[in-house]
Write a structure and sequence with these properties.
Radius of gyration: 24 Å
Mean pLDDT: 96
Number of domains: 3
Structural class: alpha/beta
CATH superfamily of the largest domain: Zn peptidases
CATH class of the largest domain: Alpha Beta
CATH architecture of the largest domain: 3-Layer(aba) Sandwich
Strand content: 15-25%
Number of helices: 17
CATH topology of the largest domain: Aminopeptidase
Low-confidence stretches: none
Shape: globular
Largest sheet: 8 strands, mixed
Helix content: 40-55%
Distance between the termini: 32 Å
Protein backbone atom coordinates (compact mmCIF):
# COMPACT_ATOMS: atom_id res chain seq x y z
CA UNK A 1 0.00 0.00 0.00
CA UNK A 2 0.91 3.67 -0.11
CA UNK A 3 -0.48 6.82 1.41
CA UNK A 4 -3.55 8.12 -0.38
CA UNK A 5 -3.99 11.84 -0.95
CA UNK A 6 -6.63 11.85 1.79
CA UNK A 7 -4.32 10.10 4.26
CA UNK A 8 -1.51 12.52 3.50
CA UNK A 9 -3.90 15.39 4.08
CA UNK A 10 -4.97 14.00 7.45
CA UNK A 11 -1.36 13.59 8.55
CA UNK A 12 -0.71 17.22 7.65
CA UNK A 13 -3.58 18.13 9.98
CA UNK A 14 -1.70 16.82 13.02
CA UNK A 15 -0.79 19.88 15.14
CA UNK A 16 2.86 18.95 15.64
CA UNK A 17 3.92 22.17 17.35
CA UNK A 18 1.06 21.94 19.84
CA UNK A 19 1.95 18.33 20.57
CA UNK A 20 5.62 19.12 21.10
CA UNK A 21 4.62 21.98 23.37
CA UNK A 22 2.75 19.52 25.60
CA UNK A 23 5.89 17.38 25.85
CA UNK A 24 7.86 20.45 26.89
CA UNK A 25 5.23 21.38 29.48
CA UNK A 26 5.11 17.88 30.92
CA UNK A 27 8.93 17.89 31.12
CA UNK A 28 8.50 20.41 33.97
CA UNK A 29 5.63 18.61 35.75
CA UNK A 30 5.93 15.68 38.15
CA UNK A 31 3.04 13.29 37.52
CA UNK A 32 3.27 10.70 40.28
CA UNK A 33 1.59 12.29 43.30
CA UNK A 34 -2.22 12.03 42.88
CA UNK A 35 -2.70 15.81 43.08
CA UNK A 36 -0.07 16.38 40.38
CA UNK A 37 -1.71 13.75 38.18
CA UNK A 38 -5.00 15.64 38.26
CA UNK A 39 -3.21 18.88 37.36
CA UNK A 40 -1.75 17.07 34.36
CA UNK A 41 -5.25 15.93 33.35
CA UNK A 42 -6.44 19.51 33.52
CA UNK A 43 -3.52 20.50 31.31
CA UNK A 44 -4.49 17.88 28.72
CA UNK A 45 -8.08 19.16 28.83
CA UNK A 46 -6.97 22.78 28.38
CA UNK A 47 -4.82 21.88 25.38
CA UNK A 48 -7.64 19.83 23.85
CA UNK A 49 -10.17 22.63 24.23
CA UNK A 50 -7.73 25.12 22.74
CA UNK A 51 -7.67 22.88 19.64
CA UNK A 52 -11.47 22.82 19.53
CA UNK A 53 -11.77 19.25 20.80
CA UNK A 54 -14.59 18.11 23.11
CA UNK A 55 -13.14 16.42 26.17
CA UNK A 56 -14.74 14.92 29.24
CA UNK A 57 -12.97 14.41 32.55
CA UNK A 58 -14.34 11.33 34.26
CA UNK A 59 -13.61 10.97 37.98
CA UNK A 60 -12.37 7.55 39.02
CA UNK A 61 -11.83 6.32 42.56
CA UNK A 62 -8.78 4.08 42.21
CA UNK A 63 -6.28 2.48 44.57
CA UNK A 64 -2.74 3.84 44.36
CA UNK A 65 0.59 3.17 46.04
CA UNK A 66 3.15 5.96 45.85
CA UNK A 67 6.73 4.97 46.76
CA UNK A 68 8.66 7.04 49.28
CA UNK A 69 12.09 6.63 50.84
CA UNK A 70 13.74 3.24 51.20
CA UNK A 71 17.09 1.79 52.18
CA UNK A 72 19.03 -1.41 52.69
CA UNK A 73 21.35 -1.67 55.70
CA UNK A 74 23.95 -4.37 56.08
CA UNK A 75 27.35 -4.62 57.77
CA UNK A 76 26.96 -1.13 59.24
CA UNK A 77 26.38 0.56 55.89
CA UNK A 78 23.15 2.02 54.52
CA UNK A 79 22.40 1.93 50.80
CA UNK A 80 19.83 3.99 48.95
CA UNK A 81 16.92 2.01 47.52
CA UNK A 82 13.52 2.41 45.88
CA UNK A 83 10.45 0.39 46.86
CA UNK A 84 8.22 -0.73 43.98
CA UNK A 85 4.65 0.53 44.13
CA UNK A 86 2.28 -1.80 46.01
CA UNK A 87 5.08 -3.58 47.88
CA UNK A 88 4.67 -3.98 51.63
CA UNK A 89 5.80 -0.83 53.45
CA UNK A 90 8.08 -1.40 56.45
CA UNK A 91 8.86 2.10 57.75
CA UNK A 92 10.15 0.59 61.00
CA UNK A 93 12.38 -1.82 59.08
CA UNK A 94 12.57 -5.58 58.70
CA UNK A 95 15.73 -7.47 59.58
CA UNK A 96 16.47 -11.08 58.72
CA UNK A 97 19.15 -13.44 57.57
CA UNK A 98 19.80 -12.90 53.86
CA UNK A 99 20.61 -15.24 51.01
CA UNK A 100 21.81 -14.49 47.50
CA UNK A 101 20.55 -16.48 44.51
CA UNK A 102 21.81 -15.58 41.05
CA UNK A 103 19.05 -14.80 38.54
CA UNK A 104 18.91 -15.34 34.81
CA UNK A 105 20.55 -12.12 33.58
CA UNK A 106 19.22 -12.60 30.05
CA UNK A 107 15.67 -12.60 31.29
CA UNK A 108 15.52 -9.81 33.87
CA UNK A 109 12.21 -8.50 32.53
CA UNK A 110 10.45 -11.83 32.77
CA UNK A 111 6.90 -11.89 34.03
CA UNK A 112 7.10 -15.61 34.58
CA UNK A 113 6.54 -17.37 37.90
CA UNK A 114 8.50 -20.36 36.59
CA UNK A 115 11.57 -20.94 38.76
CA UNK A 116 13.40 -22.35 35.76
CA UNK A 117 12.86 -19.17 33.78
CA UNK A 118 13.85 -16.78 36.56
CA UNK A 119 16.73 -18.73 38.12
CA UNK A 120 17.92 -20.80 35.17
CA UNK A 121 21.53 -19.89 35.92
CA UNK A 122 21.35 -21.77 39.21
CA UNK A 123 19.45 -24.80 37.90
CA UNK A 124 17.26 -24.82 41.00
CA UNK A 125 14.06 -26.78 41.30
CA UNK A 126 11.22 -25.11 43.26
CA UNK A 127 11.62 -27.20 46.42
CA UNK A 128 15.35 -26.54 46.68
CA UNK A 129 14.88 -22.82 46.10
CA UNK A 130 12.07 -22.61 48.65
CA UNK A 131 14.21 -24.34 51.28
CA UNK A 132 17.03 -21.90 50.61
CA UNK A 133 15.03 -18.67 50.86
CA UNK A 134 12.26 -19.49 53.37
CA UNK A 135 12.35 -16.99 56.26
CA UNK A 136 15.23 -15.08 54.67
CA UNK A 137 15.52 -11.91 52.62
CA UNK A 138 16.38 -12.89 49.07
CA UNK A 139 18.94 -10.81 47.20
CA UNK A 140 18.99 -11.35 43.44
CA UNK A 141 19.33 -9.57 40.12
CA UNK A 142 16.38 -8.10 38.30
CA UNK A 143 13.48 -5.72 38.76
CA UNK A 144 10.88 -5.81 41.51
CA UNK A 145 8.15 -7.02 39.19
CA UNK A 146 4.92 -8.80 40.16
CA UNK A 147 5.85 -12.32 39.10
CA UNK A 148 9.18 -12.33 40.92
CA UNK A 149 7.60 -10.85 44.05
CA UNK A 150 4.79 -13.41 44.03
CA UNK A 151 7.20 -16.27 43.37
CA UNK A 152 9.52 -15.58 46.30
CA UNK A 153 6.64 -14.62 48.60
CA UNK A 154 4.94 -17.96 47.89
CA UNK A 155 8.19 -19.67 48.82
CA UNK A 156 8.22 -18.02 52.23
CA UNK A 157 10.82 -15.29 51.77
CA UNK A 158 10.86 -12.52 54.39
CA UNK A 159 11.72 -9.86 51.82
CA UNK A 160 13.27 -9.19 48.43
CA UNK A 161 16.16 -6.99 47.34
CA UNK A 162 16.58 -6.75 43.57
CA UNK A 163 19.83 -5.52 42.05
CA UNK A 164 19.08 -3.38 39.01
CA UNK A 165 21.62 -3.82 36.20
CA UNK A 166 22.78 -0.19 35.88
CA UNK A 167 23.85 2.93 37.73
CA UNK A 168 20.30 4.15 38.22
CA UNK A 169 17.60 2.53 40.32
CA UNK A 170 14.37 1.96 38.44
CA UNK A 171 10.92 2.49 39.87
CA UNK A 172 8.47 -0.35 39.34
CA UNK A 173 5.36 -2.13 40.51
CA UNK A 174 5.32 -5.37 42.47
CA UNK A 175 1.70 -6.52 42.70
CA UNK A 176 0.07 -9.19 40.52
CA UNK A 177 -3.32 -7.55 41.20
CA UNK A 178 -4.45 -5.92 37.97
CA UNK A 179 -6.08 -2.59 38.79
CA UNK A 180 -7.77 -1.61 42.03
CA UNK A 181 -8.31 -4.70 44.18
CA UNK A 182 -11.65 -6.39 44.62
CA UNK A 183 -12.34 -8.59 47.60
CA UNK A 184 -11.05 -11.68 45.83
CA UNK A 185 -7.78 -9.89 45.06
CA UNK A 186 -6.84 -8.92 48.59
CA UNK A 187 -5.10 -12.21 49.39
CA UNK A 188 -2.75 -11.62 46.46
CA UNK A 189 -1.45 -8.27 47.70
CA UNK A 190 2.31 -8.36 48.30
CA UNK A 191 2.99 -9.31 51.91
CA UNK A 192 6.75 -8.81 51.85
CA UNK A 193 8.89 -5.68 51.52
CA UNK A 194 10.61 -5.28 48.17
CA UNK A 195 13.30 -2.75 47.29
CA UNK A 196 15.61 -2.13 44.34
CA UNK A 197 19.22 -1.01 44.50
CA UNK A 198 21.71 -0.14 41.78
CA UNK A 199 24.41 -2.44 40.45
CA UNK A 200 27.36 -1.08 42.44
CA UNK A 201 25.53 -1.09 45.76
CA UNK A 202 24.06 -4.47 44.92
CA UNK A 203 27.55 -5.94 44.53
CA UNK A 204 28.54 -4.65 47.97
CA UNK A 205 25.33 -5.99 49.51
CA UNK A 206 25.87 -9.35 47.83
CA UNK A 207 29.40 -9.59 49.25
CA UNK A 208 28.12 -8.80 52.75
CA UNK A 209 25.41 -11.45 52.40
CA UNK A 210 28.10 -13.97 51.47
CA UNK A 211 29.84 -13.18 54.76
CA UNK A 212 26.65 -14.03 56.65
CA UNK A 213 25.72 -10.48 57.65
CA UNK A 214 22.01 -9.90 58.53
CA UNK A 215 20.18 -7.45 56.31
CA UNK A 216 17.58 -4.76 57.09
CA UNK A 217 15.04 -3.29 54.67
CA UNK A 218 13.27 0.00 55.37
CA UNK A 219 10.58 1.31 53.02
CA UNK A 220 7.78 3.85 53.04
CA UNK A 221 4.82 4.04 50.66
CA UNK A 222 1.65 6.15 50.67
CA UNK A 223 -1.34 3.96 49.83
CA UNK A 224 -5.07 4.43 49.57
CA UNK A 225 -8.04 5.36 47.40
CA UNK A 226 -7.72 8.55 45.37
CA UNK A 227 -10.00 10.48 43.03
CA UNK A 228 -8.24 10.67 39.67
CA UNK A 229 -9.25 12.26 36.38
CA UNK A 230 -9.69 10.18 33.23
CA UNK A 231 -9.73 12.48 30.18
CA UNK A 232 -11.64 11.11 27.18
CA UNK A 233 -12.29 12.63 23.74
CA UNK A 234 -15.09 11.17 21.62
CA UNK A 235 -14.69 11.66 17.85
CA UNK A 236 -17.96 10.66 16.18
CA UNK A 237 -18.02 8.87 12.84
CA UNK A 238 -19.53 11.07 10.13
CA UNK A 239 -19.42 8.87 7.03
CA UNK A 240 -22.84 7.76 5.73
CA UNK A 241 -21.80 4.11 6.14
CA UNK A 242 -21.50 4.68 9.89
CA UNK A 243 -25.27 4.21 10.10
CA UNK A 244 -24.71 0.47 9.55
CA UNK A 245 -23.02 0.19 12.96
CA UNK A 246 -23.47 3.58 14.64
CA UNK A 247 -21.95 2.68 18.00
CA UNK A 248 -18.75 1.02 16.77
CA UNK A 249 -15.50 2.66 17.86
CA UNK A 250 -11.73 2.31 18.10
CA UNK A 251 -10.22 3.00 21.54
CA UNK A 252 -6.82 4.71 21.45
CA UNK A 253 -5.21 5.15 24.85
CA UNK A 254 -2.11 5.80 26.93
CA UNK A 255 -1.15 6.71 30.48
CA UNK A 256 -0.43 10.25 31.60
CA UNK A 257 0.86 9.53 35.10
CA UNK A 258 4.63 9.06 35.13
CA UNK A 259 7.61 8.65 37.41
CA UNK A 260 8.96 12.15 38.02
CA UNK A 261 8.52 14.13 34.75
CA UNK A 262 8.59 10.97 32.61
CA UNK A 263 9.21 12.54 29.20
CA UNK A 264 9.80 9.35 27.20
CA UNK A 265 7.36 7.40 29.37
CA UNK A 266 4.89 8.82 28.70
CA UNK A 267 4.74 12.55 27.94
CA UNK A 268 5.53 11.82 24.30
CA UNK A 269 2.65 9.34 24.19
CA UNK A 270 0.24 11.81 25.78
CA UNK A 271 1.13 14.40 23.16
CA UNK A 272 0.83 11.85 20.36
CA UNK A 273 -2.75 11.16 21.45
CA UNK A 274 -3.53 14.88 21.41
CA UNK A 275 -2.17 15.33 17.88
CA UNK A 276 -4.00 12.24 16.64
CA UNK A 277 -7.28 13.40 18.18
CA UNK A 278 -7.03 16.84 16.55
CA UNK A 279 -6.35 15.42 13.08
CA UNK A 280 -9.15 12.86 13.25
CA UNK A 281 -11.60 15.39 14.68
CA UNK A 282 -10.99 17.65 11.70
CA UNK A 283 -11.63 14.72 9.33
CA UNK A 284 -14.41 12.96 11.24
CA UNK A 285 -16.78 13.20 8.28
CA UNK A 286 -14.77 10.43 6.62
CA UNK A 287 -14.81 8.02 9.57
CA UNK A 288 -17.01 4.94 9.41
CA UNK A 289 -16.31 4.20 13.08
CA UNK A 290 -15.95 6.58 15.97
CA UNK A 291 -12.62 7.04 17.72
CA UNK A 292 -12.33 7.34 21.48
CA UNK A 293 -9.09 8.80 22.83
CA UNK A 294 -8.36 8.22 26.54
CA UNK A 295 -5.58 9.11 28.96
CA UNK A 296 -5.13 6.89 32.05
CA UNK A 297 -3.96 7.59 35.59
CA UNK A 298 -2.77 4.80 37.88
CA UNK A 299 -0.56 3.10 35.29
CA UNK A 300 2.44 2.49 37.53
CA UNK A 301 1.28 3.42 41.01
CA UNK A 302 -1.96 1.47 40.59
CA UNK A 303 -0.95 -1.39 38.32
CA UNK A 304 -3.17 -0.10 35.49
CA UNK A 305 -5.98 0.93 37.85
CA UNK A 306 -7.05 3.78 35.55
CA UNK A 307 -7.55 1.69 32.41
CA UNK A 308 -9.06 -1.10 34.51
CA UNK A 309 -11.54 1.35 36.04
CA UNK A 310 -12.58 2.31 32.51
CA UNK A 311 -12.78 -1.34 31.41
CA UNK A 312 -15.09 -2.04 34.36
CA UNK A 313 -17.16 1.14 34.17
CA UNK A 314 -17.78 0.88 30.42
CA UNK A 315 -17.53 -2.89 30.08
CA UNK A 316 -20.84 -3.45 28.31
CA UNK A 317 -20.22 -0.66 25.81
CA UNK A 318 -16.72 -1.98 25.12
CA UNK A 319 -17.96 -5.56 24.77
CA UNK A 320 -20.70 -4.59 22.33
CA UNK A 321 -19.02 -1.90 20.26
CA UNK A 322 -15.22 -1.63 20.50
CA UNK A 323 -13.53 -3.00 17.38
CA UNK A 324 -9.92 -2.49 18.52
CA UNK A 325 -7.74 -1.01 21.25
CA UNK A 326 -4.53 0.81 20.35
CA UNK A 327 -2.08 1.61 23.16
CA UNK A 328 0.39 4.49 22.93
CA UNK A 329 3.37 4.27 25.26
CA UNK A 330 6.89 5.73 24.87
CA UNK A 331 6.86 6.90 21.24
CA UNK A 332 9.22 9.53 19.91
CA UNK A 333 12.36 8.81 21.93
CA UNK A 334 15.97 9.47 20.96
CA UNK A 335 17.81 6.84 18.92
CA UNK A 336 14.60 4.77 18.57
CA UNK A 337 14.90 4.22 14.82
CA UNK A 338 13.41 0.72 14.44
CA UNK A 339 10.10 -1.08 14.93
CA UNK A 340 11.64 -4.43 15.77
CA UNK A 341 9.60 -5.10 18.92
CA UNK A 342 6.12 -4.07 17.89
CA UNK A 343 3.32 -5.56 19.99
CA UNK A 344 0.53 -6.83 17.77
CA UNK A 345 -2.09 -9.57 17.76
CA UNK A 346 -1.61 -11.97 14.89
CA UNK A 347 -4.76 -11.04 12.97
CA UNK A 348 -3.52 -7.43 12.74
CA UNK A 349 0.04 -8.06 11.58
CA UNK A 350 -0.58 -7.48 7.88
CA UNK A 351 -2.51 -4.30 8.57
CA UNK A 352 0.12 -2.96 10.96
CA UNK A 353 3.03 -3.89 8.68
CA UNK A 354 1.45 -1.80 5.91
CA UNK A 355 0.90 1.13 8.25
CA UNK A 356 4.49 1.06 9.52
CA UNK A 357 5.94 0.91 6.01
CA UNK A 358 3.65 3.64 4.67
CA UNK A 359 4.13 6.00 7.62
CA UNK A 360 7.83 5.47 8.33
CA UNK A 361 9.40 3.48 5.51
CA UNK A 362 10.46 0.81 8.02
CA UNK A 363 9.62 -2.91 8.25
CA UNK A 364 8.35 -4.05 11.65
CA UNK A 365 9.07 -7.18 13.65
CA UNK A 366 6.30 -8.37 15.93
CA UNK A 367 5.98 -9.54 19.52
CA UNK A 368 3.09 -11.35 21.15
CA UNK A 369 1.17 -8.92 23.39
CA UNK A 370 2.26 -9.21 27.02
CA UNK A 371 0.20 -9.08 30.18
CA UNK A 372 1.45 -5.53 30.76
CA UNK A 373 1.09 -1.97 29.55
CA UNK A 374 -2.59 -1.15 30.20
CA UNK A 375 -3.70 -4.28 28.36
CA UNK A 376 -6.90 -4.13 30.41
CA UNK A 377 -9.24 -5.18 27.60
CA UNK A 378 -8.03 -8.70 26.78
CA UNK A 379 -10.67 -10.55 28.78
CA UNK A 380 -13.36 -8.58 26.97
CA UNK A 381 -12.11 -10.06 23.70
CA UNK A 382 -10.97 -6.98 21.80
CA UNK A 383 -8.32 -7.02 19.09
CA UNK A 384 -5.32 -4.86 19.94
CA UNK A 385 -2.06 -3.62 18.53
CA UNK A 386 0.80 -1.41 19.70
CA UNK A 387 1.97 -0.86 23.21
CA UNK A 388 5.46 0.46 22.75
CA UNK A 389 6.28 1.64 19.24
CA UNK A 390 9.72 2.68 17.97
CA UNK A 391 12.81 1.32 19.70
CA UNK A 392 16.58 1.32 19.43
CA UNK A 393 18.32 -1.21 17.22
CA UNK A 394 20.00 -4.16 18.88
CA UNK A 395 23.32 -3.01 17.43
CA UNK A 396 23.00 0.38 19.13
CA UNK A 397 21.95 -1.21 22.42
CA UNK A 398 25.02 -3.42 22.27
CA UNK A 399 27.24 -0.47 21.37
CA UNK A 400 25.96 1.51 24.36
CA UNK A 401 26.00 -1.56 26.61
CA UNK A 402 22.34 -0.97 27.45
CA UNK A 403 20.22 -3.62 29.12
CA UNK A 404 16.59 -4.29 28.27
CA UNK A 405 13.94 -1.97 29.66
CA UNK A 406 10.22 -1.64 28.97
CA UNK A 407 9.88 1.85 27.55
CA UNK A 408 11.58 5.09 26.50
CA UNK A 409 12.48 3.53 23.16
CA UNK A 410 15.12 1.40 24.89
CA UNK A 411 16.79 4.30 26.71
CA UNK A 412 17.81 3.14 30.20
CA UNK A 413 16.52 6.41 31.62
CA UNK A 414 13.22 4.50 31.74
CA UNK A 415 11.53 4.74 35.17
CA UNK A 416 14.33 6.91 36.56
CA UNK A 417 14.97 10.59 37.30
CA UNK A 418 16.88 10.82 34.01
CA UNK A 419 13.76 10.48 31.84
CA UNK A 420 13.87 14.18 31.00
CA UNK A 421 13.52 16.32 27.91
CA UNK A 422 16.70 15.03 26.25
CA UNK A 423 15.07 11.61 25.93
CA UNK A 424 12.54 12.96 23.41
CA UNK A 425 13.50 13.30 19.75
CA UNK A 426 11.41 15.68 17.62
CA UNK A 427 11.88 13.85 14.30
CA UNK A 428 11.08 10.42 15.75
CA UNK A 429 8.18 11.94 17.65
CA UNK A 430 6.65 13.21 14.41
CA UNK A 431 7.23 9.85 12.71
CA UNK A 432 5.42 8.03 15.50
CA UNK A 433 2.55 10.53 15.44
CA UNK A 434 2.19 9.76 11.73
CA UNK A 435 2.20 6.02 12.44
CA UNK A 436 -0.45 6.17 15.15
CA UNK A 437 -2.64 8.60 13.24
CA UNK A 438 -2.47 6.61 10.01
CA UNK A 439 -3.19 3.32 11.78
CA UNK A 440 -6.24 4.61 13.62
CA UNK A 441 -7.48 6.52 10.58
CA UNK A 442 -7.36 3.38 8.46
CA UNK A 443 -9.02 1.30 11.15
CA UNK A 444 -11.82 3.81 11.62
CA UNK A 445 -12.42 4.56 7.94
CA UNK A 446 -12.03 1.14 6.25
CA UNK A 447 -15.17 -0.30 4.64
CA UNK A 448 -14.32 -3.70 6.13
CA UNK A 449 -12.87 -3.79 9.65
CA UNK A 450 -9.16 -4.72 9.33
CA UNK A 451 -7.93 -8.10 10.46
CA UNK A 452 -7.11 -11.50 8.98
CA UNK A 453 -8.36 -14.21 11.30
CA UNK A 454 -6.89 -16.94 9.13
CA UNK A 455 -3.49 -15.83 10.44
CA UNK A 456 -4.73 -16.33 13.98
CA UNK A 457 -6.11 -19.77 13.18
CA UNK A 458 -2.78 -20.68 11.58
CA UNK A 459 -1.10 -19.57 14.80
CA UNK A 460 -3.51 -21.74 16.77
CA UNK A 461 -2.75 -24.74 14.58
CA UNK A 462 0.97 -24.41 15.29
CA UNK A 463 0.43 -24.00 19.04
CA UNK A 464 -1.98 -26.93 19.06
CA UNK A 465 0.61 -29.13 17.36
CA UNK A 466 3.30 -28.14 19.85
CA UNK A 467 1.09 -28.83 22.86
CA UNK A 468 -0.15 -32.11 21.34
CA UNK A 469 3.43 -33.31 21.00
CA UNK A 470 4.30 -32.18 24.55
CA UNK A 471 1.31 -34.08 25.95
CA UNK A 472 2.89 -37.38 24.91
CA UNK A 473 -0.42 -39.07 24.11
CA UNK A 474 -2.54 -37.47 26.85
CA UNK A 475 -5.85 -35.92 25.84
CA UNK A 476 -8.13 -36.39 22.87
CA UNK A 477 -7.05 -33.79 20.31
CA UNK A 478 -9.17 -34.88 17.38
CA UNK A 479 -12.13 -32.59 17.96
CA UNK A 480 -9.87 -29.56 18.54
CA UNK A 481 -7.91 -30.22 15.36
CA UNK A 482 -11.09 -30.76 13.33
CA UNK A 483 -12.59 -27.52 14.67
CA UNK A 484 -9.42 -25.66 13.69
CA UNK A 485 -9.58 -27.00 10.12
CA UNK A 486 -13.28 -26.23 9.80
CA UNK A 487 -12.90 -22.65 10.97
CA UNK A 488 -9.97 -22.08 8.64
CA UNK A 489 -11.98 -23.30 5.65
CA UNK A 490 -14.96 -21.12 6.60
CA UNK A 491 -12.73 -18.05 6.98
CA UNK A 492 -11.34 -18.68 3.49
CA UNK A 493 -14.89 -18.75 2.16
CA UNK A 494 -15.67 -15.54 4.04
CA UNK A 495 -12.65 -13.75 2.59
CA UNK A 496 -13.64 -14.86 -0.89
CA UNK A 497 -17.24 -13.80 -0.34
CA UNK A 498 -16.15 -10.34 0.83
CA UNK A 499 -13.77 -9.94 -2.13
CA UNK A 500 -16.49 -10.93 -4.61
CA UNK A 501 -19.14 -8.77 -2.99
CA UNK A 502 -21.26 -11.75 -2.01
CA UNK A 503 -21.01 -10.93 1.71
CA UNK A 504 -22.31 -7.54 2.75
CA UNK A 505 -19.76 -5.41 4.63
CA UNK A 506 -22.08 -5.09 7.64
CA UNK A 507 -22.20 -8.88 8.01
CA UNK A 508 -18.44 -9.23 7.58
CA UNK A 509 -17.81 -6.52 10.19
CA UNK A 510 -20.17 -8.17 12.65
CA UNK A 511 -18.38 -11.48 12.16
CA UNK A 512 -15.02 -9.83 12.77
CA UNK A 513 -16.14 -8.47 16.11
CA UNK A 514 -17.72 -11.76 17.16
CA UNK A 515 -14.55 -13.64 16.26
CA UNK A 516 -12.51 -11.30 18.44
CA UNK A 517 -14.82 -11.84 21.41
CA UNK A 518 -14.24 -15.59 21.15
CA UNK A 519 -10.64 -15.96 20.01
CA UNK A 520 -8.83 -13.16 21.85
CA UNK A 521 -9.70 -14.40 25.37
CA UNK A 522 -8.95 -17.96 24.29
CA UNK A 523 -5.39 -16.87 23.51
CA UNK A 524 -4.77 -14.20 26.15
CA UNK A 525 -6.90 -14.81 29.25
CA UNK A 526 -7.47 -17.42 31.91
CA UNK A 527 -10.34 -15.79 33.77
CA UNK A 528 -13.83 -14.69 32.75
CA UNK A 529 -14.99 -12.03 30.37
CA UNK A 530 -15.49 -9.28 32.94
CA UNK A 531 -12.53 -10.21 35.15
CA UNK A 532 -8.84 -9.31 35.07
CA UNK A 533 -6.09 -11.89 34.95
CA UNK A 534 -3.09 -11.45 37.29
CA UNK A 535 -0.11 -9.47 36.06
CA UNK A 536 2.21 -12.26 35.08
CA UNK A 537 2.96 -14.03 31.82
CA UNK A 538 0.10 -15.70 29.98
CA UNK A 539 1.20 -18.42 27.54
CA UNK A 540 -0.45 -18.83 24.15
CA UNK A 541 -3.74 -20.72 24.42
CA UNK A 542 -3.34 -20.84 28.22
CA UNK A 543 -6.03 -23.48 28.70
CA UNK A 544 -3.81 -25.97 26.88
CA UNK A 545 -0.44 -24.90 28.30
CA UNK A 546 -0.58 -27.66 30.90
CA UNK A 547 -0.02 -30.24 28.14
CA UNK A 548 3.53 -31.18 29.17
CA UNK A 549 2.41 -31.79 32.76
CA UNK A 550 -0.14 -34.30 31.46
CA UNK A 551 2.50 -36.38 29.69
CA UNK A 552 2.55 -39.95 31.09
CA UNK A 553 5.97 -39.55 32.74
CA UNK A 554 5.08 -36.27 34.50
CA UNK A 555 4.75 -36.33 38.33
CA UNK A 556 1.01 -35.51 38.44
CA UNK A 557 0.07 -36.65 34.99
CA UNK A 558 -3.43 -37.95 35.79
CA UNK A 559 -4.46 -34.75 37.54
CA UNK A 560 -3.05 -32.60 34.76
CA UNK A 561 -4.78 -34.74 32.13
CA UNK A 562 -8.13 -33.75 33.61
CA UNK A 563 -7.28 -30.05 33.27
CA UNK A 564 -5.95 -30.63 29.77
CA UNK A 565 -9.15 -32.28 28.59
CA UNK A 566 -11.17 -29.42 29.99
CA UNK A 567 -8.92 -27.02 28.14
CA UNK A 568 -9.42 -28.96 24.92
CA UNK A 569 -13.17 -28.82 25.41
CA UNK A 570 -13.02 -25.06 25.95
CA UNK A 571 -10.90 -24.60 22.85
CA UNK A 572 -13.11 -26.77 20.66
CA UNK A 573 -16.28 -25.07 21.86
CA UNK A 574 -14.86 -21.61 21.19
CA UNK A 575 -13.79 -22.51 17.65
CA UNK A 576 -17.14 -24.18 17.01
CA UNK A 577 -18.90 -21.00 18.13
CA UNK A 578 -16.60 -18.98 15.88
CA UNK A 579 -17.49 -21.26 12.97
CA UNK A 580 -21.17 -20.61 13.63
CA UNK A 581 -20.58 -16.83 13.48
CA UNK A 582 -18.74 -17.12 10.17
CA UNK A 583 -21.40 -19.42 8.76
CA UNK A 584 -24.06 -16.87 9.69
CA UNK A 585 -22.16 -14.17 7.83
CA UNK A 586 -21.97 -16.44 4.76
CA UNK A 587 -25.66 -17.27 4.81
CA UNK A 588 -27.88 -15.41 2.36
Amino acid sequence: MALSDFESSVLRDCPLDDAWSLVETFSTMHRCDPADVNVAADTIAERARALGLPIELHRAEIYLSIPGEASVEIAGKRYRAKPPALSLPVPGGRTAEAVYVRANMKNLRTYSKDVRAVFAAEGLDPDTLAARIAGRILVTEGFGNPALTALVQDMGAAGLVVINPGENIHWGTSSTIWGSPGLADLDRAPAIPVVAVNRADGAAIRDAVARGEPLSITSALTEGWFAQSVPVIEIPAGHPDAAEDPDAFVLVHGHYDSWEVGVGDNATGDATLLALAAALWKNRAQLRRSVRVAWWPGHSTGRYSGSTWYADRFALDLARNCVATVNCDSPGCRWASTYRKLTCMTEMQGFVADAVRDATGKTPEFLRPKRAGDASFLNLGITSYYSLSSTMSQELLDEKNYYEVSGCGGNIAWHTEDDVMEIADRAQFEADIALYTLSVLRHASARIVPGDWRLTVAEFRGILGSYHKAAGGAGDWRAAEAATDALDAALADLAQGVAQGAVAPARANRAHRELARLLVPLNFARLGRFEQDPAFACPALPGLAIASEAAPDAPRARNAAIDLQRGLNTYTAALSDALARVSAALAN
